[in-house]
Amino acid sequence: MAGGCPTPPGTDPIWANAGYRGPIGPSVRAEGSSTGGPVMAGMESKLDKAWENKSVQEIADAPVAALQGVSDSDAELLGKAFNIKTVRDLGTNKYFRWAQGIATLAD
């Protein structure tokens, strides 16, 4: 799997026991989407304007700076520290996923 996460949520006991339910929201088809592809409900507020009407696939392959609040210099640091170049890389990074599982268990 890309990003080096050997066991995705739902297959590793830490995730199953934590009640992990996945990312930000359910997939829905966006009306007026320039690509007509599926996007996640409520994602517009989490993306830079240029990415608001893109499909989930396009967003996943977008530079991490497509996320609102992540600057180009932040993205550069993520690339240097963790080899994260895309939103998909960030979402599948094993260290971030481990930390999310631990935080979920702690809540």
Quaternary structure type? single chain
Structural class by sheet pairing and helices: mainly alpha
Q: Order of strands across the biggest sheet?
A: 1-2
Percentage of residues in strands: 5-15%
Taking pLDDT < 50 over at least 5 consecutive residues as the criterion, the unreliable ranges are 1-9, 13-36
SSE succession: HEEHHHH
User: What spatial form do the alpha-carbon principal axes imply?
Assistant: globular
Task: Tell me what the structure shows.
- The protein is mainly alpha-helical.
- The chain has one domain.
- Helices cover 38% and strands 6% of the residues.
- The chain has five helices and two strands; from the N terminus they run αββαααα.
- Strands 1-2 form a two-stranded antiparallel ribbon.
- The chain starts with 12 loop residues before the first helix and ends with a helix.
- The N terminus is likely disordered.
List keywords for this structure.
107 residues; mainly alpha; two-stranded antiparallel sheet; 5 helices; globular
SSE map:
Elements: H1 13-18, E1 27-29, E2 38-40, H2 56-60, H3 72-82, H4 87-92, H5 94-106
Antiparallel strand pairs: 1-2
Short description:
This protein is mainly alpha-helical.
